[in-house]
Fold these 2 entries.
Entry 1:
Amino acid sequence: MMSNKSILPVPPYKALIFDCDGTLADTIFLHFQTWADAMRPFGFELTKEWFYEQTGLSAMELIKTINNTFDHELDPLLVTSSKEKLYRELIHTVKEIQAVTDIVRTHCGKTPMAVASGSNRSIVQATLSVIDLLDLFDTIVTIDDVPRGKPCPDIFLEAAERLKVSATDCIVYEDSNGGLEAARRAGMRAIDIRILWNSSSFASV
């Protein structure tokens, strides 16, 4: 693992925007586990390798992608409802990604900050509450607030607008290719936190 200094924000910037799952909170395996358990009764076996390549997609986009890619007919509402129930039962096990959350705590009250997540609001708020971050952000933007999820830039642009900061003055923290593409389309610089494990994963766009 690389030094935490590798993901410190480099001036100039006026605001910081953070993805939630896999960036602030170590939730990716839990999301995989609960998605897989929710889909199995409907005849679909989700694999970890494929799922990890789709991180950043909203729930509806994930199911749409599965149905299109594998010629399946998962019911988005039924599967999502089941998955969220399973996730909430295990949400107490979620841990923070300290290298990133340390940055949040350091900048709290000093730099405008937002969460911009492709998950729905209730799940994001519950996750942030578990890791004691819920009250540290100026605003939280989720898939419930915008017409299109990542890799479209809508979530990040909405966050910048709420923070009253130009998109070009924002730094985004992300862990997914879709999220990094969304930041690029929004005209924002981005830090791929996967640099903590792989020095080739830094993106400044």
Note: The chain is about 40% helix and 10% strand.
Entry 2:
Amino acid sequence: MVKDTIDTFKLAASYTIGSHILPGKPISDISQKLHSKIKLKITTCDKIIEGLKKSEYDLGLIETPIFDNSLIYKEWMKDELVICSKMPIPNSIDENELGKYRLIARKKDSLTRIVISNFLENIGLSYKNFKSISEINNPTAMIQSIKWSKPNRENPTVAIVSQIAIEDELKRKELHISRIKNHPIIRKFYLIYNQNSHNYIDIEEIIKSLQNWR
């Protein structure tokens, strides 16, 4: 049973999770269970790790794990990174076709970009296979850039983003998705907290609630 003595529960979430997954029912459920206010900080995964180690946050939600022995990690959900476009595109894009796509990518120091770079390298490709690359520092801006991009059948603008983050747009057929060589890019989201946290019972209760959400 969650106690009702917490004044403010401090969450820290990475950009995709904090902007596209937590808002709505998940964060409302946490607030109701704890009978407390929720303070949500949206930042990068590495800063969440550092904040948890300093006890600045009660619970962190990250999309790219950075493992640290002082923290407890719980698997949350699987996510797939997909190529998305405003225009319908083939379900699978092969190496020769990549050269016609203009890619909107995360900054080079982004952990998500590193994940994608490693995936491309494993199948014998790189970001250089795309026609051109522009960089944006967060996934929400990437998605909005795709939604506002001008239709171009010869050189469509695309981005590699979380499929969960664009679920609503896919249902409304505002965006369309594809995969590279029909290979999925699967990753796991993690719920993490400091092993020395004074309210770990409450945190574990919230973790169970989030794990049962989807």
Note: The longest strand covers residues 71-85.
